[in-house]
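Title: Request for sanity check on Glutamine cyclotransferase prediction

Description:
We are preparing a figure and want to confirm that the structure record we downloaded matches what your pipeline produces today. Could someone re-run it with the sequence below and paste the raw structure tokens into this thread? We only need the token string, no images.
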Amino acid sequence: MTTDAGTAFDGEHLWQIAEDRINQIRLLDGNIVRSIPAPGHGGDSGLAWAEGFLWVGQHLGKVIQQVDPSDGSVLNTIQSTPS
């Protein structure tokens, strides 16, 4: 499994960016439980878990996206603007 920048822990599972997917990994045996599309289609550079959602950063795109962990849908996008 190819992994990229970004690992998060939801209290039970690890989540890991793997190219254009985000994998949910069971700690007990390391098996992938679920795989959802990554919003940056391979351009994602960071991952966090907060308040029941995945938060995915894209360094080059200058965005952070709130992602539904059940299906990978983007719920909110925060755009960074240069100062």
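Thanks, this matches our download. Residues 7-62 form one domain.
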